[in-house]
Amino acid sequence: MGRLGEFVVFFMVTLFVAHVVKTLIFIGHFTHIVNHSPGPCRVIEVNGSEDLALLNDGLVFVSSGLRYRLSISYDPVLDTREGKILTFDFNKADKNPVELTLKNFNRSGFNPHGISAYQDPSSGAVSLFVINHRPDAQAIEIFDFERETHSLIHRRSVVNELIWSPNNLHAVGPDAFYVTNDNLFRYGTVQQLLYMYILNNFFASNIVYFDGFKAIEAMSGVHPNGLAMDKDQSFVFASATHDNGVAVYRRRRDNTLEASQVIKVGAHVDNINVDPVTGNLWLATIPKILDIVAYSKNISHPSASQVLEVQLWKSSASGIAFPYHKVREVYRNDGKELSASTSALVYKSQLLVGTLSTNMLYCEVKYY
Ligand SMILES: *[C@@H]1O[C@H](CO)[C@@H](O)[C@H](O)[C@H]1NC(C)=O
Ligand SMILES: *[C@@H]1O[C@H](CO)[C@@H](O)[C@H](O)[C@H]1NC(C)=O
Ligand SMILES: *[C@@H]1O[C@H](CO)[C@@H](O)[C@H](O)[C@H]1NC(C)=O
Questions:
Q1: What's the total number of domains in the chain?
Q2: What positions carry a catalytic annotation?
Q3: How do residues 17-61 score in pLDDT, each as one tens digit?
Q4: Burial status of residue 314 (CB atoms within 10 A of its CB: 0-12, 13-18, 19 or more)
Q5: Ligand 3: which of 79, 298, 301 to mutate, most ligand atoms within 8 Å of CB?
Q6: Which one in 17, 212, 231, 350 has a CA-CA gap of 20 to 30 Å to 2?
Q7: Interstrand relation of 235-240 and 245-251 (parallel, antiparallel or unpaired)
């Protein structure tokens, strides 16, 4: 090998090492976790609490029992889990969550993931939308909430060829919603895992809108996970996996989306919730990606948790949607108190944090 050959090899090795180090930094491998919380906290024992959805009166829906593959092997205890929807009431915060009865619904293989509640502005009727990785299909189950009997009555299943790897959604009407496909490949396939680790560098996924009858691709060429909207339903916020941030989109009249900005937060953003009072974003993030992969193989492995608030000032009518914003850290933990945070929301100075496959955390919000 001549001098030039040696140089080329040296150059390639350097590029490769630089890429690996950059990736390790990006996925938080060297991130140091300093524990802090916004006030007194209490761990609430549940078998998974991947997503949370809040009603105006302080009642929270919790999706529990998700079986989601982050690697080839996963913790066998997850296969014994039963998919459930629970409620937690911020007005009785010392009480444990209560399971909802599912009526008119085939529970076999129920594998609930992202959820979203829609409250009819005039009648107050509540519908709950639940992503269900069913054995036979990727479905969005729409339930009507019946408060008196504490049950969910199944109304319809939406199965559509444009919805192949749903992760999170936001309801905009009794039958309409935006939903993210977090993967280019169908949920539960080997290609899905390959995409998760390698192919996503070359291909992107999308956000889909369903109007009650048909689905359209609302935004293509993106890497989304969690999704939420502002109260007026004019903006969509979706996690931007490749940017460690939140992508902000303007909703057009035809329900397609226009990219406006990315708010970087320095960690992988999972689910996003909008505080109905302030309009601020509440993010649960995954500060250390390798730890959540280890956790998915063994849920006793601690995986760090983090909650961030993104304060948004008034939106602008054109150009960058939110020129003024500020990111504040509310909670951070090495995983020993709370492992693998995936969703966070607030109600009257109280915080609830959900996790991929384990407990929830309730905190009083006094200082942060
Ligand atoms: C969690 O699941 C285990 C069985 O795997 C069960 O013994 C336990 O009661 C469940 N906990 C809750 C809070 O549902
Ligand atoms: C319920 O769902 C399971 C799994 O998708 C399916 O095998 C079964 O036939 C369904 N049962 C009924 C009564 O539809
Ligand atoms: C899971 O992790 C815990 C804590 O790190 C360890 O004690 C346990 O042996 C592990 N279980 C398996 C099956 O590896």
A1: 1
A2: 113
A3: 888 888 888 888 888 888 999 999 999 999 999 999 999 999 999
A4: exposed
A5: 298
A6: 17
A7: antiparallel
Main-chain phi, psi angles of 288, to 5 degrees: -130, 105
Q: Which ligand is nearest to the CA of 104?
A: 2
154: which strand partners? Answer: 143
In whole angstroms, give the CA distance from residue 261 to residue 27: 22
pLDDT digit string (tens) for 240-290? 999 999 999 999 999 999 999 999 999 999 999 999 999 999 999 999 999
Instruction: Please report where in the chains the tokens 């004019």 appear, as a residue.
Output: 234
Structural domain includes residue 32: no
Which tokens in the block code for residue 266? 């320095």
Q: Which residue has the tokens 């609302």?
A: 218
- What the block records as the tokens of 45 is 């024992």
In CATH, what number is assigned to the domain containing residue 142? Answer: 2.120.10.30
Structural domain that includes position 214: 40-364
With a Cβ cut-off of 6 Å, ligand 1 is lined by: 45-47, 80
- Tell me the chain's radius of gyration from C-alpha atoms: 20
Find out whether the beta carbon of 134 lies less than 6 Å from any atom of ligand 2.
yes
With a 6 A CB cut-off, is 77 part of the ligand 3 pocket?
Answer: no
For ligand 1, mutation pick of 46, 47, 62, 79 (most atoms within 8 Å of CB) = 47
